[in-house]
Design a protein that fits this description.
With 402 residues, this protein is of the alpha/beta class. It has 2 domains: 168 residues, Rossmann fold (3-Layer(aba) Sandwich); 208 residues, Rossmann fold (3-Layer(aba) Sandwich). The chain is built from 15 helices and 15 strands. The strands form 3 sheets. The protein has a 6-stranded parallel sheet with strand order 3-4-2-1-5-6, sandwiched between helices. A 6-stranded parallel sheet has the order 9-8-7-13-14-15, sandwiched between helices. Strands 11-10-12 form a 3-stranded antiparallel sheet. β1, α2 and β2 form a beta-alpha-beta unit. α9 crosses α10. The longest helix is centred in the N-terminal third of the chain and has 15 residues. The radius of gyration is 23 Å and the shape is elongated. The model has no long low-confidence stretch (mean pLDDT 95). Bound molecules: adenosine monophosphate. The site of adenosine monophosphate has 17 residues, from β12.
């Protein structure tokens, strides 16, 4: 991390009035009326924008939005997001109808010092996802410097996250810095014991994650539907539960490798079962080895939650990805809620550094009312997971080549 140039360095390097492009992630969910449903990603961008504005730079915001696949599509315009950003900043934010060419050039050069302009969706051009060098040069053309503040897009080598860094001095934004330091605390150089929770539906989508975490953590808690596959791999019957029968051998390999590396895999000792996955079912509990043939596991049981909370009590660092049960449907949210609330309490008390992210995790922790107390909750889905899988992210690597 120390090799990245930050916004403080940019303030020293460039005079007021210089044009800086900041790669943001404005890809926020909208409701049917076109209003921003969750502004978390925009809010995290504000510190960088405010700092750049205070330095008197002219600021162009680059981002993708949706998957227009190189075509101009009105419903994927960033214009409404520019308006939302303006509201959050309490400052005028202009909008340019293209991210390259005359439209971008004119919009940026006509900004006052400290002014901000959102440039239209980078993915309206095929060159973006192709990481095309000519397109990257066109993006860079009006600017004097480039800032990447979009960790959530950093797993993709696209022109606006990667190619552009060949043409402009490159800096790391505040939100990107915060994300990288949280990830470093989680997996780069964690305080031990290090506990990870991996939950969610299937192991087939999380093989690389389980493979990497089982070699790096001290305790790996496996929850959610994927725990069923591990229980089945140990020879237990799991009734009508979600279970990936083709993954049993892989689950056994993960368990063996974890043991070799001194990582304890914690599987649920008991389970909450029901006849079907539907709301309002009665909350029956059974031992994980005694699931009736006609019932399915939909949540971890109270003994399992006690084990998980005891693991958190011993831990200095916690990484969390995925729910412990089918948390969207009551009463199958109890294990996720209880464990998340315990982690939140330990974090508040200063005993635990807790880092969470990926897929449904943010929704699950917020549902538990615990997200706000975690040390860091990543809004990046794929990029967060790829980092936990031990992969190098092109958008992050590109930051240190300058
Ligand atoms: P993922 O996207 O892989 O993190 O999986 C999240 C999904 O897993 C959520 O929608 C949960 O409802 C689901 N899930 C968790 N536990 C179970 C379970 N025991 N049976 C079925 N689905 C589950």
């Amino acid at each position: 991390m120390s090799s990245f140039k930050t916004l403080d360095t940019l303030a020293d390097d460039m005079a007021a009035g210089g044009i800086v492009l900041i790669r943001a992630d404005l890809n926020v969910p909208l409701d049917d009326s076109g209003a921003v449903r969750d502004a978390t990603r925009l809010e995290r961008l504000l510190p960088s924008l405010k700092k750049l504005s205070q330095n008197g730079f002219r600021i162009g915001v680059l981002s993708h939005f949706g998957r227009p696949k190189g075509r101009r599509m009105a419903e994927m315009s960033l214009a409404p997001i520019a308006a939302a950003l303006s509201g959050l900043l309490g400052q005028k934010v202009t909008f340019a109808g293209d991210c390259i060419g005359d439209a971008a050039q004119e919009a940026l050069t006509s900004l006052p010092k400290g002014g901000i302009c959102v440039l239209e969706n980078t993915r309206f051009h095929g060159g973006e996802e192709a990481d095309d060098a000519d397109f990257a040069a066109e993006l860079a053309a009006p600017a004097d410097a480039y800032v990447n503040d979009a960790f959530s897009a950093a797993h993709r080598a696209h022109a606006s996250t990667h190619g552009i860094t060949k043409y402009l001095p490159t800096y790391c934004g505040h939100a990107m810095q915060a994300e990288l330091s949280a990830l470093n605390a989680a997996l780069g150089n964690p305080k031990r014991p290090l506990v990870a929770v991996v939950g969610g539906a299937k192991i087939s989508t999380k093989l690389d994650l389980l493979g990497n975490l089982s070699t790096k953590t001290d305790i790996l808690v496996i929850g959610g539907g994927m725990a069923n596959t591990f229980l089945a791999a140990q020879g237990h019957k799991v009734g009508t539960s979600l279970c990936e029968d083709t993954m049993l051998e892989i689950a056994r390999t993960i368990m063996a490798e974890a043991e070799n590396k001194g990582c304890t895999i914690l599987l649920p000792r008991d389970a909450v079962i029901a006849a079907e996955f539907a709301a309002g079912q009665s909350r029956e509990i059974c031992a994980a080895q005694a699931v009736p043939e006609d019932k399915m596991i939909l949540d971890a049981g109270p003994e399992a939650v006690r084990d998980i909370c005891a693991a958190f009590d011993k831990a200095a660092t916690l990484i969390w990805n995925g729910p412990l049960g089918a948390f969207e449907v009551e009463p199958f949210d109890v294990a996720t809620n209880s464990a998340a609330q315990h982690a939140a309490t330990l974090t508040r008390e200063g005993q635990l550094t807790s880092i969470a992210g990926g897929g449904d995790t943010v929704a699950a922790l917020n549902h538990a009312g615990a997200g706000k107390d975690f040390s860091y909750v990543s809004t990046a889905g794929g990029a967060f997971l790829e980092w936990l899988e031990g992969k190098k992210l092109p958008g992050v690597s590109a930051l240190s080549h300058h």
